[in-house]
Amino acid sequence: MTSHERPIGVAVLGLGNVGSQVVRIIQDSADDLAARIGAPLVLRGVGVRRVADDRGVPVDMLTDNIEELVSRDDVDIVVELMGPVEPARKAILSALEQRKSVVTANKALMAVSTGELAQAAEHAHVDLYFEASVAGAIPVIRPLTQSLAGDTVLRVAGIVNGTTNYILSEMDSTGADYESALADASALGYAEADPTADVEGYDAAAKAAILASIAFHTRVTADDVYREGITKVTPADFASARALGCTIKLLAICERLTSDEGQQRISARVYPALVPLDHPLATVNGAFNAVFVEAEAAGQLMFYGQGAGGAPTASAVMGDVVMAARNRVQGGRGPRESRYAKLPISPIGFIPTRYYVNMNVTDQPGVLSAVAAEFAKREVSIAVVRQEEMVDDDGQRCGARIVVVTHQATDAALSETVAALADLDVVQRINSVLRMEGATNE
Amino acid sequence: MTSHERPIGVAVLGLGNVGSQVVRIIQDSADDLAARIGAPLVLRGVGVRRVADDRGVPVDMLTDNIEELVSRDDVDIVVELMGPVEPARKAILSALEQRKSVVTANKALMAVSTGELAQAAEHAHVDLYFEASVAGAIPVIRPLTQSLAGDTVLRVAGIVNGTTNYILSEMDSTGADYESALADASALGYAEADPTADVEGYDAAAKAAILASIAFHTRVTADDVYREGITKVTPADFASARALGCTIKLLAICERLTSDEGQQRISARVYPALVPLDHPLATVNGAFNAVFVEAEAAGQLMFYGQGAGGAPTASAVMGDVVMAARNRVQGGRGPRESRYAKLPISPIGFIPTRYYVNMNVTDQPGVLSAVAAEFAKREVSIAVVRQEEMVDDDGQRCGARIVVVTHQATDAALSETVAALADLDVVQRINSVLRMEGATNE
Fold it and tell me: So where does L-homoserine get bound (chains A, B) (predicted)?
């Protein structure tokens, strides 16, 4: 059967780690791919910035004329692996306008430009797949859009950035501070020369936007995502977390909130949070990723695997390529953008959450009472409080450290409380403020 | 748009735990489902053995005439939740012949009759979905058939039976023996009155057949799966496992084996195995399920969640229903059966595996040497050996216990070794033999 079918032509844009692996799989697994698709999958060309004979691909397959490559009549599927937002956006739009199906791993683009691209795909009646844009090899987009299509997703909490997870795991297991853990991550190739996108949570926020869009059938962009990075997390926070039976993870959280009147809103946010050690996300260490999903009927699900790297990301890209190719052969299309729900996105202040506050206070009677009063004034209930004496280098008492973990309150009430604490004379310093996620006692 | 589309009619066969939840979701989530499908999803009727007014569904929706229900012109999708193999098989075939798309959770049927049903679906050009047949709410079928469609699956190892996982978790955490852990499971509703299908591994074997078929593009039925149950696992095995840094899990294993000459074979097997505590499957406890996948490019993936129960299984069923309904509205079909690879299935004897052997021996010089000689004769290399003295009720030495863990060898060589050990005069008793899976040092 296979040999009689018209081949499906593929253009790959970008020949970095992922692009090279995609090209390799198309060539090495040609027979298997043809059998799975029902027609041969043929590489038509690779778009690169620099055409040269040392790229690991025959030089006559390379071109720096992206526009010409995506316009070829024998190209059915365009695989965009160039990043960043531009020139990827322009190339994808051009491909879609010419009725090519598109597969991309570009989370930054998908998180800002999803509406425009989805409309172009819709208009052209072609597929736009982006499984590899979130959590590398881990199937997340497809389970959310298809497997859970008959369920109501309540919450998605993901460890979706390998760099920060490596740094936090390292801080947890070795007691290292942030700077030296970052240096280790850089030395091992887990962090880029400029780590800002990872450590400040921009990468995770882009993925949170994509996940929230899909989970809640609402268009969410990166700008809608509340974001804090991991640069202020200290070894003392890990010590306190440990004492509370927790570790610290950078989480991308997408949540459906239902008011007492039944009004629904959603939240998408990224920040380092205390996670109880018995939560499935707590044991996801190093460069691994995991996405934890709670749905009304399904209950708790978790998807775990390698979130980055050439081969794992190429696996996700190739899954999309095979599905897009099958649709070309058999007719039909994959699921299109679903944004019918149009749920309002809640500002962080309205989100019910729990705070961990670590502060230095003067060592005198009435301090704990003054601190507790600030919580009580804003109706924030305290779950755990720990106070310990501090001594200076000469062994003299020089104050105390208080750690407070709250029950759930609105983020606004909690952050107001922290601001008020900072203004108290008896509080010398707020050492850190983190949120707590995933605890059952809320 | 939605309101102009012809409704998609659904017939549900079976009104047990899962069927009731499916009916509830179709009714409670009607607006969301219509928006996601692009047309209203309408329940046409429910097939039951006993029509009565106490079934939680209006009595005029019920019928005991399955044949008539699936033949109705206004039924587009038949959801089969009756089990067991018959009468489900007949109902599904009848539905497919009448060009209805079919969604089923029936693993026993899918594991014996997949070819026949797949052909009927192919002939009628309709969807046959069965996500709920393996691991309840956990998306496994769709990730394997779609997300990994461009990759090469090397291995699937799953905890796919909640009853046995509950029993083994209980034995591990409380030291209970098999009988009392089974009694607990029964009392909590985790085990059926006749637990044979679960504890003897038949349920897991059916799921292994389905997973192997999909992962390796080869038709595998339950009869092709090597199977051992958990009834002989003892508290002493758990104690030994602990000492070796392991726990014991009933695993469904599907593996691709490549000979030195590049010949490929596959294996599908179910047995209780020692699993290292640092393996992701080791921490999957209680009634939870998890499926661990290794693929060439993706590396290690794990899918975790609730493997049974009315609502979780209904979530998986409804995901399939929405996809089948979307295909009805938009045209197109989901992936069909893929069995092009037709890989030979290896008998258990040829499988490379590792054994754990626990035996009682007489306490005299030369015993360990005699035992070790039987392994050496068959070129089985020993990884760990532990010998400890046994004392009787009066505190007198009465022999010794030897625990051996081997490196990898063929299952045939290992089982021959165990048979030879049993014949040795110095071996009083082989207490137990288990395999070890998931250790890195093989």
Answer: 192
Query: So what's the pLDDT on residue B405?
Result: 96
Residues A179 and A223 in one domain: yes
Q: What pLDDT does A64 receive?
A: 96
At position B265, the amino acid (one-letter code) is R
Count of helices and strands (H, E) across chain A: 14, 17
Q: What is the CA radius of gyration of chain A?
A: 25
Residue A340 placed within a domain: no
The dihedral built from the CA positions of residue B402, B405, B411 and B413, taken in this order, carries a sign that is: negative
Confidence class for position B4, pLDDT limits 50, 70, 90: low
DSSP state of A146: I
Q: Are residues B326 and B294 in the same domain?
A: no
Residue B23 lies in a domain: yes
ipTM exceeds 0.90, yes or no? yes
On whether residue B399 sits in a domain, the answer given is yes
Buried b (16+ CB within 10 A) or exposed e, B90-123: ebbbbbbeeebbbbbbbbbbbbbbbeebbebbee
pLDDT tens digit string along A301-360?
999 999 888 999 999 999 999 999 999 998 888 888 889 999 999 999 999 999 999 999
My answer on whether A14 and A54 are in the same domain is yes
pLDDT higher than 50, residue B2: no
Q: Give the model confidence (pLDDT) of A242-290 as tens digits.
A: 999 999 999 999 999 998 898 999 999 999 999 999 898 998 988 899 9
Cβ–Cβ of B315/A298 closer than 8 Å?
A: yes
Binding-site residue positions of B for NADPH: 107
Running DSSP on this structure, what letter comes out for residue A366?
Answer: T
Is A100 one of the annotated active-site residues of the chain?
no
**Residues of chain A contacting residue B333, judged by C-beta atoms under 8 Å apart:** 330, 332
Q: Choosing from B207, B232, B249, B377, which is the catalytic residue?
A: B207
C-alpha to C-alpha distance for A38 and A278, rounded to whole angstroms:
46
d(CA A334, CA A321): 12
Answer yes or no: do B137 and A298 touch at CB < 8 A: yes
C-alpha R_g of chain B: 25
Mean pLDDT of A412-437: 96
Instruction: Please indicate, yes or no, whether residues B289 and B155 belong to a single structural domain of this protein.
Output: yes
